[in-house]
Amino acid sequence: MLKTKILVVEDNLEICLLYTRLLQKHGFNVAVSYNGEEALRIVHNYKPDLIITDLMMPVMDGVEMLQKLREDPETRELPAIITSAAWDWAHEHQDLWQSFIGKPANLRQLITTIDTLISTHNSPE
Predict the structure, then answer these.
(1) Is residue 62 within 8 Å of residue 82, measured between CB atoms?
(2) Residue 82 contacts residue 100 (beta carbons within 8 Å)
(3) Which residues contact 57 (CB under 8 A, 6 or more apart)?
(4) Number of other CB atoms surrounding residue 71 within 10 Å
(5) In what order do the strands lie in the sheet with 29-33?
(6) What is the pLDDT of residues 45-62, one digit of tens each?
(7) What's the confidence (pLDDT) of residue 123?
(8) How confident is the model at residue 120 (pLDDT cuts 50, 70, 90)?
(9) Residues 6 or more apart from 16 whose CB is under 8 A from it?
(10) I need a surface site. Which of 10, 36, 84, 119 has the fewest CB within 10 A?
(11) pTM of the prediction?
């Protein structure tokens, strides 16, 4: 059975390491990007099953990255979780993501949300 692939898009190195360790411990295959522009390049090669992204990042923020993903037929339906302290900003763009988790993220909630989104996304309609 193939491992679920998750792309973490986060400019804070400590948070990246925390998420990577947590996700790998739960059996996920993890790739990391430090900004939205880099993430867009990674998505097409890595083909993640889900993205976890911060909103405020250098080069390209999470909103612009998600907008570009939603415009592409290949990535339009890719589930995304926002982890951010910027609820107001995220709320304005809630059509771009499936779940919001405030920072600092509750790690148990993060894993539960991932499991729910993956099972929902992979279930037959």
Answers:
(1) yes
(2) yes
(3) 9, 10, 11, 34, 35, 36
(4) 9
(5) 29-33, 5-9, 50-53, 80-84, 99-102
(6) 999 999 999 998 999 999
(7) 61
(8) confident
(9) 8, 10, 32, 34
(10) 119
(11) 0.91
Q: Which of 100, 108, 21 is nearest to 54 (CA)?
A: 100
Q: Could you tell me how far CA 41 lies from the centroid of its own chain? A: 14
Q: For the chain, what is the mean pLDDT?
A: 90
- Say if CB 43 and CB 32 are below 8 A apart: no
15 vs 84: CA distance, rounded Å: 11
Q: Is the pLDDT of residue 92 over 80?
A: no
Residue 121 confidence class, pLDDT cut points 50, 70, 90 = confident
Contact between 7 and 51 under an 8 Å Cβ cutoff? The reply is: yes
Helices H / strands E in the chain, number of each: 5, 5
DSSP 64-118: HHHHHHHHSTTTTT--EEEEES-HHHHHHTGGG-SEEEESSP-HHHHHHHHHHHH
The identity of residue 15, as a single letter, is I
CA atoms within 13 Å, Cβ hemisphere of 97: 27
